[in-house]
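ok trying this again, last paste got cut off
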Amino acid sequence: MAAVHESVLDAIGGTPLFRLARLGAGLPAPIYAKAEFLNIGGSVKDRAALSMVLAAERDGLLRPGGTIVEATSGNTGIGLAIVGRQRGYRVIAGVSDKSAPEKSDILRAYGAEVVLAPTAVPAEDPAHLFNVVQRLVEEIPGAWLANQYDNLANPDAHVRTTGPEIWEQTGGRVTHFVAGVGTGGTVTGTGGYLQQVSGGSVTVIGADPESSMYGGGDGSPWFVESIGHFLHPGTVEDRWPQAYRSEVVDAFERIPDRESLLTARRLAREEGILAGPSSGTAVAAALRVARRLGPDDLVVVLLPDSGRSYLSKVHSDDWMRQWGFLEAEAESEAANSLRSLLAGAGPLVAVDAGATVGEALEALRAVPDGVAPVVLARAARPYGVSATEVVGSVSRAVLAAALADGGAKPGDPLGGPSGESPGDSPGGPLGALLGPALPAVGVGQSPAEARAALGGAHEAVLVLVDGRAVAVLSRARLGGGA
């Protein structure tokens, strides 16, 4: 008989386990998925939201008539909106401008106010999402910042609920727990409980985007939302969440974006589970782990949220093709894709936003078409240049002309006298040397689609494979006339 609840808040938690029988077919160890998208707000973050609000009330930090404020990629904000509105609070969600638009729509539907702000700027930048919400808390009487990254009521929710549920549901047979790491609350609380109750026999695996710093990456951007640790190259002080205890995680599986996104799509098509991209990361990691185990082992992987919040992204063929994650399947279609033009394009040359005019011109000497993307300065890019790091473009002809007529000197900073990047307001006359970011197209798209992206304002396109720039193709190389 179905449960009867007096409030939707009573329906948070108690999510089922599903065996991944198709994706896990033939593997030595069974894999069971903890379906956190079946929480009332559609994600695991409902648990943390309820825990944080109740703790704030108990501690006198949140009083009747107060306002809940939080910086979120979407899911925690949704949980706080449900809990907060049920308990009579105003809710303001500061949302990353990189988050799927569906999440902002859901927040508004639940009665939250949405403030969009960037996260792809230095942590010290006043425009950064965390600084925007902090100012809101200072300006609004009775406001309380949930601060999921440093709020210990976040992992405590999983010590009290998620961990015990998994232990009971598996009859204590779970040997490996796999989860993504965002704030760190889920993996710390759930993993820590399972390690404690099992006497240390449960192994905790962190599923991490390949370039995330948690697992040892360089902190450059990736395309899976809500997990990982990003580091902007301009950030002075890198702070890790207090909700995360690194000692709980025994090992990391670092998953490339393509593997994460395609696994999320397989979950829907093969298992009937419409989940988000971070679930794809976690399941990809669980599949790797299960291949190394035996029949006496049992893997539980946590699926954080629903794919309904990502219909315009991972579950959209158009979006996947635009960012270079899907290519043509038929041989005839592949022959008419941009991949067929890459051989003559040469290796990608990118110019750091912090370069001087002379350094940029020297780099451009090796570029056949004389146009290159300008990217955020980063000392090393072992994972390539993410499309999201591209902030402008620069032309060999424009730089040479500026040097010839005295408008620029070789030692001048490319971004102008004050050294701004093209993403800022260019300072002084050198701002004219920087062109707009080149239009980006996926490697599986056709030359005709690339020419359409050029429009009348650009002379070249940036070609992407798995969300990372691999080449620049000029209008002439794309063919088809002007």
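PB: full thing came through this time. The first strand starts at residue 17 and ends at 19.
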